[in-house]
């Protein structure tokens, strides 16, 4: 995809927080070409904000798709993370998980919808995450299905606590999930041990579908890294936001 002559607009805000220990969190925003304050736009909410922008190139990819493929314009809100406490924030049951969810639902979303021309409906909000970022995105949706009912999952780290969370959930017919995992992710070493991400994602898919969720699932050659996930982003975003969106 060629670089567009129309300049990308990326801004960064620091959002104050009464829940996070640091008292604030940096968030990166991509605004689409032709952005107007009196219109309203869908929003892609990303975990691991710095990685989604720098390694996933989500702003560059989205900019090109909007300009060249005639996609409806959308905003990206990508929340940065301190990698030293990432697991504690992202993993259900961990020490900082509740505070992180409260930040998202009570501070981040209201800030976005007050500051930008964001469309305020569950159908216009997409949660996107890689690995544990997908896990916490699902956790957010399960907590507030009235706010979020669409999930983009890149090699989700669906460990025991996340599987238990899914099993404890009631009817999930309100949830639409796009999932991918790399076939070379069968023995990935993490700080919580070595995990088979293919099996973890197969298990998550089965549970979600058993509870009525719509799941668009694929396994492809790929490793647990951004080199794989970046290539998947156009298809993933297209399922929700492209001209032929089906989710």
UniProtKB/TrEMBL annotation:
Keywords: Hydrolase. Transmembrane segments: none annotated. One of its GO terms (molecular function) is hydrolase activity. The keyword Hydrolase applies. It holds the Pfam family Esterase. InterPro entries: AB_hydrolase_fold, Esterase-like, Mycobacterial_A85_antigen. PANTHER family: ENTEROCHELIN ESTERASE-RELATED, IRON(III) ENTEROBACTIN ESTERASE. This is Alpha/beta hydrolase-fold protein. The lineage of its organism: Bacteria, Bacillati, Bacillota, Bacilli, Bacillales.
